[in-house]
Structure formats: structure tokens, C-alpha cells
Amino acid sequence: MNLEGKLTLFDNVNISNIKSNGNVIYMEGDIINVEWNHGYVNNSISNGPFLKTKSNNIDIQFKSFIFKNNENGSKNDYGFISMANNININIDYSEFMNNESYSSGIFFFNDTKNNNIYINNSIFTSNICHSKGTILYLNEDTSNEYKYQKSISIIESNFEYNKAGYFGGVAFINNRIEFQYNLDIRKNKFFNNSVGVAGGVFFFEQPNDRIYYIHNLLKMKSNENEFKNNKANSHGPDFATHPTQFEIENSNNIGGLTNNEIKNGIEIYSGETTSFSIILKDKLNNIVEDLEKFYSDIGITIELYDYDRNEKVPNYSIVTSENIFNRGNCLSYI
């Protein structure tokens, strides 16, 4: 469907009980301008997104739109609404319910440049994706990212009982969210969302210090966002990143390290023993429990050095419960 520069209006359109071996709607053209007013899409089963376009400039509006009981069975063609490049999307008074995707979730935005994402007074409930980002998967074009303008507004909307197989029960963000982003996220409810690994609500693929600002912004009392009963099997029921840091804690056992010893370095004498715990955490200080062993390639190596000679001691014994982390903790005895 070539829609170069034209307004395509779907007004009171009902699409139900449809099956497709690929996309249901595929749009071509450098400029795409689409409005869905009072649309209804139900029980669409496809092997790819319901709506897909790779156009350079996309303006799409969903107003009083209902999208429910739909399925994308493809593991390689992501999401239900798939777009790229320069995106302006408005979602007003709409509902997305009981949809299932075998890849990412509802909105898959790939290689984005300029983007304006606006969600207002909408409901997202009981959606499932088997991978990452049940409602939003945002992947940024990093070739020249600082020249682009970006905005995300989510206002007075409900996100409940959404589930992702791995990361981002609501959103999976694969970009740095640097200072060119204008964020307005307030008066939303994030209840009972869950993931198989991390980030029951938001997961950030690229950890940086800006994530602290976003976390605090969304949790700020004046923004009136509510987070309740969100779950992650490994870490971060509300917010999470991949593991980024180790933290050493003194053991409660006799002979354990004191806090000062941990801070200034671990020093013991011949014949003595000591013990300490190494805790695996993400950028937001969530303990990475990793019950499903997603991070099984992360382990530790401990070596004993002569303090004065700064050389490895030839004969010593270090005993660990195991050389990988169990519930974010590796307990070591020397």
C-alpha cells in the first residue's frame, strides 16, 4: 500500500477474525500519515505485525481505538505496530488488551531518529510478549543520535497484568535516554506487571547515570505515578538493567570482614581465615538473583597476593560455596 504523503483515515473500521501469513497492513512511502478513529481490531492472527512500515517519516494517531485478542506468531518480525526512523505517534483514550506476541509486544520502534511518543488516558492490560517490551520496545539509531529530538509523554494511563518473557513488562528501552529526551510521565498506574528475568515495568538495555534521573522522576511524588505488585524473577520489580557491579559485604560469621577492612582492602596474616560475600547488582542497586541462570557466564576469580612483594602467594586455599552467583550472592572463605 503506497500512501506517499496522503492522509489515510480509518474511521469506525472493524477488523475481526482475520488470519495472515505475514503483515495484515504494510504501508510504503517516504511520508505516512494515518488516523484511526473509533477503530476496533479483534482476533487478528498474523505471522508478523498487524501494521508495519519502514517509511522515513511516520505520523500515526489512535483515538478511541480498541485492539484486543490479537496474536503475532512470528519470532523474527517484531511487535503489532512496527515502525522506524522519524516517528510521531499519539494514542488517546484507547485500549490494548489480551494480545500475545511471540517476539516483542505492542509497539516496536526500531532505529528511531526523531520521535514523539504520546500516550494519554489509555489502558494496556493482560498483554503478553515472549521476548522483551510487552507494550513498548524502543531501539534507537545511534549513528548520529545527538542531532535528533525525542519526546516521551505517558499521562493518566493504566498498565496492568502485562507480562514479558525476559525483560520489560511494560517497556524495553535500548538507547541511552540522554539529555535530548523530553520526558513527561505522570498520573499512571503500573500494577501487577511481570517478567521472566528483570524489569517488571521498565528495563534499560544500556546502563548509564541518566537512568537514576528517570527512576527518580517516575517515582517523584508530585508526578503521581503508582507502582504496585510488579514482579521480576531475577531483579528489579519496577526498574532494572543488566548486572553492572560487584559489591563486597562482610559476613555475619566469626572472622568476617569489617566495613573498614572492605573499604581499605582485605589484609590477613598467615594462618588466619576470613570470609566475605560478593553481591552482584545492576545499575540501580537491585540484587541480581538470576534464578533462571540467564547470567550464568558471570563468575568470580579470587587470588591471594603477598602484600609487601605484590606477588601471588604460591600455596593457599580459597573455598567458595560455588564460583558462580546464587541469588546474587557468592560467599567466600579464605
Short description:
This is Right handed beta helix domain-containing protein. The protein is mostly beta strands.
What does this structure look like?
With 334 residues, the protein is mainly beta. It has two domains: 7-241; 243-333, no CATH class. The chain has two helices and 33 strands. The strands form four sheets. Strands 2, 5, 8, 9, 11, 12, 14, 15, 18, 19, 22, 23, 25 and 26 form a 14-stranded parallel beta sheet that branches. A hairpin with a 4-residue loop joins strand 30 (305-306) and strand 31. The N and C termini lie far apart (69 Å). It comes from Piromyces finnis. This is Right handed beta helix domain-containing protein.
List keywords for this structure.
single chain, 334 residues, mainly beta, 2 domains, 14-stranded parallel β-sheet, 13-stranded parallel β-sheet, 2 helices, 5% helix, Right handed beta helix domain-containing protein
Which structural category fits the helices and strands? mainly beta
What percentage of the residues does DSSP assign to strands (E)?
A: 35-45%
Which runs of at least 5 residues are low in confidence (pLDDT < 50)?
A: 252-259
| Total of DSSP H or I helical runs spanning 4+ residues | 2
**Outline, from the CA principal axes?**
elongated
Number of beta-strand segments: 33
Q: Over all CA atoms, what is the radius of gyration?
A: 24 Å
Percent of residues in helices comes to under 10%
Q: Overall pLDDT, averaged? A: 85
Oligomeric nature of the chains: single chain
Q: Report the major sheet.
A: 14 strands, parallel
The end-to-end span amounts to 69 Å
**How many distinct folded domains?**
2
Protein name: Right handed beta helix domain-containing protein
Organism: Piromyces finnis
